[in-house]
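Lecture notes, part 5. Sequence design as translation. It can be helpful to think of inverse folding as translation between two languages: the language of shapes and the language of residues. The source text, in structure tokens, appears below.
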């Protein structure tokens, strides 16, 4: 776990190197002043201004690389009401849909990473425009089962393999296995394969909505609020209306029919009545076969683990806390391991003080974005004084399930705990409270330094694990 001081010192060195001509200007100006030259003040002014820029540059670099969260980052824009289960996602927009194209659902049967090799390493790269740049957009090969013919008047379902760029913010739609796609009969995908009636193009922001990554609620004309997250049939019907109407603005995660054109609102109301007459079952968080769509291991980012513990931080009473992302908005700045996003988090301090919402710009790893449909939880380590928090991505990844969490008992038995976030959270806190680092996702109680917490770990795991430990003895 990097300390804030070490990051400041490293960035100070970088700033001094970048501003290396500044001390030379000061030296030249001083020598010229002693020599009585009239132009000495120009060199001194340049040197002085440049010297003042060094600490400012250092602080800016540090804030970008080490985004601390404090109550001073409190949310200023209160136009969106965030519930505890709200998640708003503003992703790069899709291309304009052809008039003759049909919007349908497609299930992702298989997915694999084809190409992602941006230049720049850990540096920040900024672009212009509203679309995600190709360099920072991974190419994914997918085998899709396109459910054509469902309420569209098209043909029969078919399978097709596509290769396309997926915006990082929408990677979770691939993992979840549900996409909103367009079938364009005017552009044949493969003239030699009559089973594919047209070019298949995923609509990524709508796919994130269909996958349940972005929550969706509808306020009817009667003022009643309905949650339609992970109800794909109803959502597709709404999306078709939105496409025909030229797009519908969402207030956060909510569509308020009272603010729409009366004709459009009437169509939405008809969809709601149709749903009440024949309710659909809520779709699962992840469609079956997720192991065939698992991209996390191929994406860059910090490896998941139980986390490192700084001795000074632990001795002074530092603790771990949990927060939850409420909103992510794409920017045009990227790093190799993920996009830089404008985020809103709800932080719950460990001291029992009220939770607060904070707005913070930070780099979010692509591996975490690929499982965003399952969780928006994030682990923070709090400063000993409780006034600032920093995202701990290795712990966050393990809690989110990007790595397989395992405990090895003193007798050598492996106990998987993946998919049990509360158990993983309890183990993280136990290790942090004892000042024990375990950067790996495997907690091996046979190691000498962990033997002292073996009993407590087995208690956290529950009665079954305690029985295993008794058998080992």
């Amino acid at each position: 776990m990097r300390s804030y001081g070490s990051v400041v010192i490293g960035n100070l060195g970088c700033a001094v190197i970048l501003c290396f001509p500044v001390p030379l200007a000061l030296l030249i100006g001083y020598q010229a002043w002693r020599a009585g030259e009239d132009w000495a003040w120009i060199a001194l002014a340049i040197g002085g201004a440049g010297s003042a820029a060094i600490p400012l540059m250092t602080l800016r670099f540090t804030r970008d690389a080490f985004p601390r969260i404090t109550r001073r980052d409190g949310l200023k824009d209160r136009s969106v009401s965030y519930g505890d289960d709200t998640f708003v996602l503003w992703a790069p927009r899709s291309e304009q849909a052809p008039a003759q194209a049909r919007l349908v659902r497609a299930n992702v049967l298989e997915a694999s990473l084809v190409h992602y090799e941006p230049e720049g390493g850990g540096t920040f790269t900024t672009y212009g425009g509203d679309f995600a740049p190709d360099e920072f957009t991974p190419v994914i090969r997918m085998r899709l089962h396109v459910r054509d013919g469902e309420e569209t008047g098209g043909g029969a379902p078919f399978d097709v393999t596509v290769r396309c760029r997926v915006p990082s913010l929408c990677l979770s739609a691939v993992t979840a296995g549900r996409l909103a796609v367009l079938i364009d009969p005017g552009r044949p995908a493969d003239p030699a394969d009559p089973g594919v009636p047209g070019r298949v193009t995923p609509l990524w922001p709508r796919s994130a909505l269909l996958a349940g990554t972005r929550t969706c609620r509808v306020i009817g004309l009667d003022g009643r609020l309905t949650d339609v997250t992970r109800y794909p049939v109803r959502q597709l019907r709404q999306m078709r209306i939105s496409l025909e109407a030229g797009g519908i603005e969402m207030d956060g995660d909510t569509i308020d029919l009272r603010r729409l054109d009366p004709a459009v609102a009437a169509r939405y109301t008809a969809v709601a009545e149709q749903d009440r007459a024949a309710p659909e079952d809520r779709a699962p968080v992840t469609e079956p076969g997720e192991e065939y769509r698992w991209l996390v291991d191929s994406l860059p980012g910090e490896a998941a683990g139980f986390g490192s513990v700084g001795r000074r931080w632990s001795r002074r009473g530092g603790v771990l806390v949990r927060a939850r992302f409420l909103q992510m908005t794409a920017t045009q700045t990227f790093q190799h391991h993920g996009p830089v996003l404008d985020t809103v988090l709800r932080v719950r301090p460990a001291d029992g003080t009220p939770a607060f919402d904070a707005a913070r710009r930070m780099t979010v790893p692509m591996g975490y974005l690929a499982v965003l449909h399952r969780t928006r939880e994030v682990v923070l380590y709090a400063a000993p004084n409780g006034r600032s928090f920093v995202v701990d991505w290795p712990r966050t990844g393990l809690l989110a399930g990007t790595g397989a969490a395992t405990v090895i008992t003193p007798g050598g038995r492996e106990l998987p705990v993946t998919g049990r976030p509360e158990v993983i959270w309890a183990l993280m806190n136990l290790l942090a409270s004892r000042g024990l680092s375990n950067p790996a996702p495997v907690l091996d109680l046979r190691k000498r330094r962990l033997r002292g917490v073996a009993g407590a770990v087995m208690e956290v795991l529950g009665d079954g694990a305690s029985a295993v430990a008794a058998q080992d003895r």
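The translated text above is only one of many valid answers, since several sequences can fold into similar shapes. Residues 40-65 form the longest helix (26 residues).
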